[in-house]
Specification:
129 residues; mainly alpha; two-stranded parallel ribbon; 4 strands
């Protein structure tokens, strides 16, 4: 994740980055070393609720895009929180990239900076409030 963020630092520095604690700290250190200025807000570490905190921001429409590079070859102690974050992104129509290629496609999309583009929200009539 740090390598991807550093590679895309110019684009990412134009946005506020909301990260789990450990990832955000590592990205901040890498950016500081490279002289990159970016607003990075760190939640708790993933196993201590950071994924759940970010999911809550998704629900409150405070997240426009999620990049969550998942290591599928290693189990995560907070797998339930990760699945909950992925689910909330799907329910609330927040694009989420789970691998490097999809992350690169999303942040280079012309829709990313198009102020006129408004994605349609899924209709969950039975559960709407």
């Amino acid at each position: 994740m740090v390598e991807w963020a550093t590679f895309n630092a110019e684009t990412l520095s134009e946005h506020t980055l909301i990260c789990t604690g450990t990832t955000g700290s590592l990205i901040q250190q890498a950016f500081d070393k490279s002289g990159i200025k970016a607003e990075i807000v760190c939640m708790h570490s993933g196993p201590f609720g950071g994924d759940a905190e970010i999911a809550a921001k998704v629900v409150r429409k405070e997240i426009n895009l999620a990049i969550f590079l998942i290591d599928d070859l290693n189990s995560q102690p907070h797998e339930a929180d990760i699945q909950m974050l992925l689910r909330q992104c799907r329910i609330h129509n927040v694009p989420i990239a789970c691998n490097r290629y999809s992350a690169d496609l999303m942040i280079t999309s012309s829709l990313w900076d198009d102020d006129n583009y408004a994605p349609s929200m899924p209709q969950y009539i039975e559960f709407a409030r």
